[in-house]
Design brief:
Strand order of the largest sheet: 1-2-3-5-4
Oligomer: single chain
Structural class: alpha+beta
Radius of gyration: 28 Å
Helix content: 40-55%
Number of helices: 5
Distance between the termini: 76 Å
């Protein structure tokens, strides 16, 4: 432990750089988005100490903490603007709601098949059963079963 303290007193840059790299490695492993900004803050403190601005361990820890809080809060604001709330563009199923589908297999006892988004789906109908070739609108998805109705 004494050698770590000696390293910090002679070259604090390496300690802060190691902290930043360690945080970045953990972030890369788990992809949490929570450790990215502390890693960046540790890197900033490392550069600060390499430039000769030494505040001592308590001062550097305070700068690290303040930078981490500020960067995290600003990034949350930026991320919420870049990724507005709403359906996930990668969730194909939720994007099908409200879309038109073509009936490819007649509905018998309220069940049939429709073609939408490049694939056939099992479907159940709300209301009057459509005929083969008719367009319907997807109103709900339950597992792999679409609920459809004739367009108004």
């Amino acid at each position: 432990m004494m050698s770590l303290a000696d390293l910090y007193t002679s070259q604090p840059f390496w300690i802060w750089l190691a902290i930043g790299v360690l945080l970045l490695a953990v972030e890369a492993m788990f992809s949490t988005e929570w450790l990215l900004w502390p890693a960046v803050s540790a890197g900033v403190v490392a550069v600060m100490t390499a430039a000769g601005l030494r505040l001592g361990l308590p001062g550097e820890v305070a700068v690290f903490a303040v930078l981490t809080v500020i960067a995290t809060l600003l990034s949350r604001r930026l991320i919420s603007k870049a990724n507005p709330a709403g359906p996930d563009i990668n969730d194909r199923d939720s994007r099908l709601i409200g879309q038109r589908a073509r009936v490819v297999e007649a509905f018998v006892s309220g069940r049939g098949r429709v073609f939408i988004s490049g694939a056939e789906w099992p479907a159940e109908v709300e209301g009057e059963a459509p005929v083969e070739g008719q367009d319907v609108v997807v109103t709900r998805i339950t597992g792999s079963l679409l609920t459809v109705q004739s367009p108004v």
